[in-house]
Amino acid sequence: MIIKEKNSDDVLKVSCNEEGIEKASQIISSGGIVIFPTDTVYGIGCNPYNKEAVEKIYKIKSRDITKSVPVLTYSIETAEKIVEFDQFTKKIVEKFWPGPLTVILKVTDKKIKESLRLENKIAIRVPDHKCTLELLKKCSFLVGTSANSSGDSPHTDPDECLKNLENYDIFIDGGIITSKGESTIIEIENEQIKIIREGSLTKDEILQS
Q: Which of 18, 67, 84, 173 is the most buried (most CB within 10 A)?
């Protein structure tokens, strides 16, 4: 079901079903902004290769342009198209993807590096959410930052999310998200795990892998 949402005459609210995902993928491919559920919180995203769309997300979130945004993808194999894994890191993500683990890796795709204004690294993960994975099957990569204004808490309730953000194009309603919090962000150098942000996974849980 597709419903006009009250935020704007131009915003659509859709269900997490085949019709809604197809509509969202079309909007993303044409440069639109989507809010979507993940296994941790609601996210806001776009085609990461579209500079104008990326800049719009920064404006919607009032996010500092110097702070890079993470990217979501469908699988390790898809991730390998834009990042470089070493064997140790690959072993970690094989255990935790799909799941609440974001890894900072060397970016190898020049186009995405340019569009996201990256230096040499990108934060990337595979979310454990059926709806989002179906969307990622269609678009391969998606900017995946939390759907909230910078400084505010991320949203797990779709109604709260709808109330607090504007100027996006489509909202995929996945209901209330039950999670332990945001993804844990790590960076690995010389087989040493550095926690950049501790979320729903602890360092001990990761090390036990």
A: 173
